[in-house]
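Please review this one:
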Amino acid sequence: MRGPSGALLLATGTLAILLGAILGQQILLARTASDATSAGMMASVAEDLAQMPEVWSATEGGDELPSGPTAAGPVPEPARAVAAAPAASPISLFTRIPKPALPAGPRRVGIQAGHWLTEQAPPELWRLLTQTGTSWNGQTEVEINLDIAKRIKAVLEPKGIVVDVLPTTIPPGYVADAFVALHGDGDGTGANSGFKMAFSSRRTPFEADLLETIKGEYGKATGLSYDAARIGRSMLVYYAMSWQRNKYATAPHTPSVILEMGYVSNDNDRELMTERADVVAGAIASGILQFLAEHPRDKLFGQDLLVPAIPQFAPPPRPPGG
């Protein structure tokens, strides 16, 4: 039960969030421990946000991300930020990201060949310098990633789509109609098989759609199983999609996913990615085409984005002597 003070706090909190969204400012909403767990309060604020025109509310997420089968299962519909706020959190902080200028010209897709040209990464990405990818029986992951990225480009460009084959270093604030980071996995034994996909939080409402269209086409064409149980934190917070942390990342309005195409360490998966690379590339291209057909530019870039904010982090310093 909530008394007069609780009702006042609710009204003030709702007004603060709405005012912040309208003015493009970050607004801090303090809550008592009891009100933080109030389902009525959360529902009321969520209802207020739902009435706001031209604002998308992105999925709540952040540093503390789940792992294992629960996190890796079917992707839910993106939840509204306030409605999904953890009950234990004492505060909520939101920020509004203005919509970008509607890109001109043909549709654009970014395909990142994972680990390609990592040695050229800027100081901000120094932690990646030792992450050169896996290899098995003379086949390197980076060679596989780059080959398939080029094949995807060859499929999409004749259809009038501009395709950027991107290295480790993503252009700062990269804007495209879709972005897919290609990787291959390795387990050191050759036992594991399958493909995995993920996207990060604080982004567009369309990441789940991009994931599902590629996932469906990829599984159907390749026959590989979806290795949901092994989707880890490194995929969920992938640097090239973490715009709030990294300068060299896709813009928050760019639908972005990461795809682990299979296990380079598994004979069957590796044969698929090397000897039947056209099948792999064709499946990914088909998923992208389906996504673009269902999501015109004015839908992708037509509204501001309302996201839960986190503190801005400075680039990690280089280790002594690094």
Observations:
- The radius of gyration is 21 Å.
